[in-house]
Structure formats: C-alpha cells, structure tokens
Amino acid sequence: MTANGLHHVTAYAGDPARNVDFYTRILGLRLVKRTVNFDDPTTYHLYYGDSAGSPGTVLTFFPMAHAAPGRAGIGETQETAFAVPRGSIGWWTHRFVAAGLRHEASVQAFGQTTLRFRDPDGTMLALVGVDDGVGLAWTGGDVPAEHAIAGFHGVTLLLAEAAPTAAILTDVFGFVETSREGSSIRFANGAGLGGHVTLRAVGEFLRGRPGAGSVHHIAFRATDDAAQAAMVQRLEQAHGMQVTEQRDRNYFRSVYFREPGGVLFEIATDIPGFAVDESAESLGQALKLPPGLEMHRDRIEAVLPALA
Ligand code: ZN
C-alpha cells in the first residue's frame, strides 16, 4: 500500500503555442519539460508543473494544431483539479473574468470551494481551495506566490459504475472513501498533492472519444521500481488486470493498464525525475530528446512548430 497519489495527468490539446501560453501565463505553471511524444516524434510532449516538476503537480499535453475535439463520455477523466490556497478563489475568479475565460461561479463541492473552468481546447479543469501551503509552486510567472497553484488536488472519473474502479483505488493505491454527493464518491489517500479521486457513476452512456480537450490517461505514483512491481503483482493476481511491460519514459518508468471502468491508468516511478537531462534551473527551456531520437534532432526540429 502507498500514500502516494497522482503522479501526472496527460491530455490532448490543439495549437501548442496556445497551450504554452495558457498554462504558463494564465495559470502560472512552469513548463518543466519540452520534449516529443516518444511514439510520434513529430508531436510535442509538453509538461507543466511546480518549480521542480514534482510528482503530483505535472499536467502534460500532446498538442497538435489541427486536432479534432474529443467527446465527453464514460470511461475517461472528466475533470482535473488543482489545489490553490483557500483564500485565492476570488483572485482567480477575477483573473478568469479579465482573461475572458470560460468558467462557472464557484461552488461548494465535498465541503471545498471549487471553481470550474476550461482551457482553450475545452479541457475541464477546476481550482479547489485548500488549507495547505503552496509547496514548491512556481513563482517565475506573473501569478503572485500567495495565489499560486500548488499542484493537483485530484481528478474526477466519469464511469458507468463506481465499484470496480473503487476496488482498484482502495486495494492497490491506498485510497479510502471519504464522502458522497449525489452520484459522486470521493476517495482520498492522504497524499498532499494529487491525493483525491472522485468517481462519478452515471450508468451506461456514450463512451468518451479521445481528441483535443480530453484526458488520455492518469498516472499514479510509485516510489521506485520495487514499489511499482508490487502494485503490478497485486493488480494481476487480485484483480485480473493485464498490465504492460515497464517502459522507460526518460523522466520516470511506467506501466499501463485499462482499469475496469475503461480509464487508462499508468503507474509511474518518482525516479529519476525531470532534472535527469537538464539542470533544475533551466527546466523546459530547450527541446530535450531521448537518446534514441537524438540522432534525428535536425529533422524533428524542422517539423515541430514554434512555441512562441
Ligand atoms: Zn503518462
């Protein structure tokens, strides 16, 4: 069992320059890694997070300028929520109004003030007011430190039924059910950041279709390879899950499985982290390629669009 929560969340986006502008300038996150989709090196893979790219803070995108929009439905992550200081929701509401950003009036959800909004591709996001401090929040942008996003609060998964997914959350990732509201059940595991998963069960409905504005997968943390292997063993032996072989993602090592509700889950190691191929001070500034793609750098750089 682990007290670790989410490691990262990965989504599809449209125009990459617009993606960078929104997440770094409007939300004030740090671009902590500028690389390519290892499975399709003509596409960027952009990572945003806190100042160190700490696990539990990292939202990543595969941006493609002319990507078709996704369609919301069951078997996918419906909403990704960030934690901000409790007193900052008003400041953020004002910022979203000034930026002309689509957002809703803040509401109380599970006893916490929640401000729901969308990025330019329609990705459903939220800010949740919390008591904890700002952690290693990035303060290199124009969001003042006292309002900065600390990292993930958690995610909401849209499912036909909650129980099969809940069994994985509780038995493999150490979550416990904390409360219910309507058709939603919230689970928490005590991790400071990314320690909440809400399951929203709506019965049989259209499945989600991937595209710009939709989440591709969510990753949970494993401290190291041994912790990951223990979770894989539990998934296979107690839950009948088929888990992939481990893949080296340069900044973490990952396994993947599709949980019973249809959402693609990953387990990613905390090690080695984003400073493995560039200094902590210069994270995200240069295009980084894994060793196997470095020999093709000229061709890759020639097809990638400018980011700013
Ligand atoms: Zn991932």
Question: What is the secondary structure topology, with strand pairs?
Answer:
Blueprint: E1 6-13, H1 16-26, E2 30-37, E3 40-49, E4 58-63, E5 76-85, H2 89-99, E6 107-109, E7 112-118, E8 124-130, E9 151-159, H3 163-172, E10 176-181, E11 184-188, E12 196-201, E13 215-222, H4 225-239, E14 247-248, E15 252-258, E16 264-272, H5 291-294, H6 297-303
Parallel strand pairs: 1-4, 5-8, 9-12, 13-16
Antiparallel strand pairs: 1-13, 2-3, 3-4, 5-9, 6-7, 7-8, 10-11, 11-12, 14-15, 15-16
The protein binds zinc ion (ZN).
Task: Explain what the structure shows.
It is a single chain. By secondary structure, the protein is of the alpha+beta class. It has a single domain (6-303), classed as 2,3-Dihydroxybiphenyl 1,2-Dioxygenase, domain 1. The chain has helices at residues 16-26, 89-99, 163-172, 225-239, 291-294, 297-303, and strands spanning 6-13, 30-37, 40-49, 58-63, 76-85, 107-109, 112-118, 124-130, 151-159, 176-181, 184-188, 196-201, 215-222, 247-248, 252-258, 264-272. The termini are far apart. The model has no long low-confidence stretch (mean pLDDT 95). Zinc ion (ZN) binds at residues 8, 10, 217, 219, 266.
